[in-house]
């Protein structure tokens, strides 16, 4: 009964068009009234406490770094480097997109920011070369979701805060799975693009390649600084966000000089707007998360999945299928905030490593960004490319299947996540 009231109070307002943040508060209040413990002061305290978290301070800094990266020339130089290195090979522009997505993901941690940068920089170029527009848009959208997987990742930060899991371990655990997804996209691109007729860019000389590498070296140094700093304990994930923001500002304004002081205000405002949405969602989710614990919703769900508790693989498959379904109707941030407090007690009871589960959970949520109707990344690419959602979905499908296969392999072979963590970890 408790689960039904929670879901009804959450999904009902959402179906009527109520913003998700307010629907989260409504669901929490509904549970309080059902438990006969309604107190407005408790609601207010949980909202304030929800946003009062030191690790969450990393979110605005990484979002600011993403805005600066796109405005200050870091994104463009990464794409230019990839173009110079592999743009001339058959299907090279697709590999450029995948390579650029991996590097950009290690700068911003946001799939939406990466999609905006890749779409604006590469879609016109690939379309002009003769690539199928729908397939091109599908590749760019699918490559963009590497952003929340390879560190730094805003998704990992939110999951770590809500689930009480080490953000540093999550960051390091996401490196190899992110590269696996990139490799799967490369193989898929080779298959789907082999019959296309398109013009190949001219092969660049060694001098041009060296110049592109030198121009991009400042941008390439940022992920190295972050990963090395986290591995050796130089700074925490929150401090890494500050380092990323300050470093990108310094490079954009002093080294590349593409971000004039007059534009700083607009960059800060854009980052603040996105931050306010994310943080308000986090604050409101704290109300429902507290009530979920008090009402023992995880206990009720654990009773439902009790037949699967002895088989970790089947349990994870069932949870991942559930998240795929939820991801088609809900964006990544609210899914993390709603599902994490419900699922984590079950995961711990089943003896599953929370870091391993966190990687699977975030990959699944990232895939949800390219599934209609809510898929945020799809909407970004639609806006940039002027493609309809139907056209873009046809182009996305082969890459979506490849990413789901990678997720399935990670469920079957946990060592693909746990062993690399021992390489990168402390």
UniProtKB/TrEMBL annotation:
Q: Does the keyword Transcription apply?
A: no
Q: Which organism is it from?
A: Rhizobium azibense
- Keyword set for this entry? Cell inner membrane, Cell membrane, Membrane, Transmembrane, Transmembrane helix, Transport
| Protein's membrane topology | Multi-pass membrane protein
- Could you say which protein family the record assigns here? Belongs to the TRAP transporter large permease family.
Q: List localization entries.
A: Cell inner membrane
Which one of the record's GO molecular function terms can you name?
transmembrane transporter activity
Matches recorded under NCBIfam families: dctM
Kindly indicate whether the keyword Chaperone belongs to this entry.
Answer: no
User: Could you identify this protein by its name?
Assistant: TRAP transporter large permease protein
What residues does the TRAP C4-dicarboxylate transport system permease DctM subunit domain cover? 8-416
Function, as annotated, reads: Part of the tripartite ATP-independent periplasmic (TRAP) transport system.
Q: Matching Pfam families, A to Z?
A: DctM
Assembly information from the UniProt record: The complex comprises the extracytoplasmic solute receptor protein and the two transmembrane proteins.
Which residue ranges run through the membrane?
A: 138-164, 170-192, 213-234, 240-256, 268-293, 313-343, 355-375, 395-413
